[in-house]
Each structure stands twice: as C-alpha cells, then as structure tokens.
Design brief:
- This protein has a three-stranded antiparallel sheet with strand order 1-3-2, with helices on one face.
- Strand 2 and strand 3 form a beta hairpin.
- Helix 1 packs antiparallel against helix 2.
- It has one domain.
- The chain is of the alpha+beta class.
Length: 86
Amino acid sequence: MNYGYGSYCPHWNENKKNVLAEQLCTLLEDLGFIDVYGYQPSSDPYIEVDGSYGGVRIRRITNMSESKQKELIRKADQIYLEIMHD
C-alpha cells in the first residue's frame, strides 16, 4: 500500500508523512503485529518511510489473510484521509 507516491494520492502533504507513519504503525500493532517500523526480516507487514519511491507505504501485506488485508486497507485509508484533511 502506497501513500504519497504518484498523482493518484490526493491531498498528500509531505509535512504530515511522519504522523501518518506513526498512526499506521499503531494500526498494525492493534492488528497484532510487533516491530512494525522499518524493514524487518520476518514476513510480517511493516511501515516504510521514504524508501525507494518516497512517501509512506505498508509492506508485506500479501502475507496477511484476504479479510485482514481488506480490514487494513479500509482502516489505513481512513487514517490517511483524517490526517491529510486535518
């Protein structure tokens, strides 16, 4: 999942990317994952800030069940909108 990369990401505010990353880390922790900030050698999802393409992204979500992916996407998109519209 990518936020802040490309023109398809409306309302992107570069100054709020760290707040977004923190909130997305909290979301992943609420879903039961630990050590979610930055690259991790496990197969669990993690948050990457300004990686290869800039912006904020949630990596390794394909290792989650489809229902968990949908829940994560829905909640992450809501967090994104709340932060970027603030």
